[in-house]
Amino acid sequence: MQPGQPRHGIDEAAFAELVRKKWTISLILTAIMLVVYYGFILVLAFEKQIFAQKIGETMTLGIPVGLGVILLACLLTGIYVRWANSTYDSSVNSIIENMRK
User: For residues 32 and 72, what is the distance between their CA atoms, to the nearest angstrom?
Assistant: First the structure.
């Protein structure tokens, strides 16, 4: 094999698998966030009385539920970042190293 020529087979299969994993993780986390967020919005739009229930003297149920939606977004972002830093980045580096050999 000539230097500078791409290696086919192993590199392509590893790259395709990595792309598939990235899309799977991304779509699962996105679906979770969309279901939770739009569920919150739909309840807010059509069943306001649910979130209007008082859970203390001045607080309604909507406040902690809304905060939960925001915290879930942060948690899902953290999950993705952790996966990307631990699995994805090392896989990319491995594929790049294999291509340089």
Answer: 9
* Verdict on whether the full-model pTM lies above 0.85: no
* pLDDT above 50: residue 1: no
Q: Which tens digits make up the pLDDT trace of 55-86?
A: 989 999 999 999 999 999 999 999 999 999 99
Task: Give Cβ neighbours of residue 37 (< 8 Å, ≥ 6 apart).
Answer: 69, 73
Cα 75-33-16 angle, rounded to 5 deg: 90
Collapsing DSSP to helix, strand or coil, 54 comes out as: strand
CA 37 to chain centroid, in Å, comes to 14
Closest CA to 25 of 85, 93, 65: 85
| Rounded Cα–Cα distance for residues 23 and 26 (Å) | 5
Q: What CA–CA distances, in Å, run from 11 to 23, 25, 43?
A: 18, 21, 48
